[in-house]
TrEMBL record:
Residues 9-171 form the Glycosyltransferase 2-like domain. This is Glycosyltransferase family 2 protein. Pfam families: Glycos_transf_2 (PF00535). CDD domains: DPM_DPG-synthase_like (cd04179). InterPro entries: Glyco_trans_2-like, Glycosyltransferase_2, Nucleotide-diphossugar_trans. It comes from the Bacteria. Transmembrane segments: none annotated.
Length: 248
């Protein structure tokens, strides 16, 4: 518990057998109450490693349903377990679990209800080995989203995120895409609701075993980001009604 709040860390896993143990070993169990691993039909030894580590809550997908579908299962399970603070941590060891303390305290102290680990603040992305083309498109898409949405975030594309349960309960995230664009849809929904978002500097690691989307997936994701941003602006102007921004 952290200030009387239950903290659940969720791990959206797909072929994370080589990195799961390193990630899990750095989770701060002095404040983390429960870890949930959702496996999206891995074809490696992810489940065997999870069992060896003693992860007690493992959700198995019958089919490889996609990154967004994995997150839906993560958040649904965490809320079912009455988590007050839910932190998504990728089990590929790209993001350090050592930031869980900082992210959780911002929410438990009711300073913010959403916290993002930013790879851009402090230039952590380039120092960590982010490919230059990904860095360029990250900056371009973030600039365009800030312009359309009216925010000043350093990036919209990090996979390291912490939420209060109240935020997730107020968002219709189960209606979102099952693909990679889920992350961006969820963040747009959060901003549309008027929640304030904190960012903290997050060092990252790019290496062979870390998960990454390919160029084609990146292009599809980028187009989806622009579409989400336009939907956001037009919805705010009451020119369209988008299912993204429906109330529960």
């Amino acid at each position: 518990m952290i200030r009387g709040k239950k903290l659940v860390v969720v791990l959206p896993a797909y072929n994370a057998g080589k990195t799961l143990e390193r990630t899990y070993s750095e989770i701060p169990f002095d404040i983390v109450d429960q870890v949930v691993l959702v496996d999206d039909k891995s074809n490696d030894d992810t489940i065997a490693v999870a069992n060896k580590l003693g992860i007690s809550v493992i959700v198995l997908h019958d089919n490889n349903s996609g990154y967004g579908a994995n997150q839906k299962s993560c958040y649904n399970k965490a809320l079912e377990m009455n988590g007050d603070i839910i932190i998504m941590l990728h089990p590929d060891y790209q993001y350090t679990p050592k930031l869980i303390h900082s992210m959780a305290y911002l929410i438990s102290n009711e300073v913010y209800q959403v916290v993002l680990g930013s790879r851009i603040l402090g230039n952590g992305a380039l120092r960590g080995g982010m490919p230059l083309y990904k860095y360029f498109f990250n900056r371009l898409l973030t600039f365009l989203q800030n312009l359309l949405i009216g925010q000043k975030l350093s990036e919209y594309h990090t996979g390291y995120r912490a939420f209060s349960a109240q935020v997730l309960k107020s968002i219709t995230y189960n209606k979102n895409s099952n693909g990679f664009i889920f992350d961006n849809e969820l963040l747009c929904q959060i901003l549309y609701k008027g929640y304030y978002v904190a960012e903290i500097t997050c060092p990252t690691k790019y290496f062979e075993d870390a998960s990454s989307i390919n160029f084609k997936q990146s292009v599809i994701y980028g187009l989806g980001v622009l579409i989400n941003s336009i939907k956001y602006r037009l919805s705010k102007l009451n020119l369209i009604q988008s299912r993204l921004f429906e109330d529960n």
